[in-house]
Amino acid sequence: MNWTLIGNICKSDLECWGSQKEGQVSRQPSKFPQICPLQLQYGDKLLMSADETLKSYGVRLFSVSREHFESCITNAELKNQLVFHHNINESEHVEAKWITPGHHYFIALHEGDSQLCKLGLRLNVSVKTQLCRASPLLRLCSGNGVCQTEFYEGAYHCRCYHRYFGRFCERFDACSDNPCKNKGVCLSNGSTDPNNRTYKCLCPPHFTGVNCSEIVGKANCQRICENGTCVELLPASFKCICESGSSELRGSYYLSPVVCRTKAATGRWQWMDI
């Protein structure tokens, strides 16, 4: 964390906290210039340094209350709140006692003068616990997501990748892309085992198959399959296959006509009107 008055100061709720959430502003002070707030996971290391101007000028860092952070008011008791017992120079590790879980407020002073603080040399650090794995031996978010937080949240949580869900992204949702055709209802068992079928389709009347793509009975198939041929897959299961010169199926729902695409004289594929 580099202390500087150049390019790292925010002066409004939007600049400091980004998009607003309900109650966020009331919990976080930001109606004055300050260094952009920082978030840490509990256990992270924090290094602090200062730019060349502040090094030559000489500043010291203090851990203060929220009230003193907002007002930049100083008093004699601040001596016990020195983060380092010397002016800040090269990058130095902040002791763990200053970055326990919770909100921590730091200000920079030059020989006790608060002008630098009022110009923006003050920093709000949120230290949060990490709730992204059930055991230290396991991967964060089971390897199926990222461990993140927002300023309005009290801890780090998993943001799961597509198709994964659960507190630690440990479950797989095979229904997220809706594999069931013809308005079939998809039920996922949440298994992450690639060798285990992770979903089942509940097919509407007259449809069957793993994905409800097959038609029950030859008569039903012939009635709804237009510009195609009914092919028997099983004794009672048929599928509409488009004829030569036609493209893929448009789709059918509850025995409405299945339409194959044909190539018009213009050379473009078109849907036939039924």
Automatic annotation (TrEMBL):
Residues 128-170, 171-213 form the EGF-like domain. Gene3D superfamilies: Laminin. The keyword S-adenosyl-L-methionine does not apply. Keywords: Disulfide bond, EGF-like domain, Repeat. Disulfide bonds join C141-C158, C160-C169, C203-C212. This is EGF-like domain-containing protein.
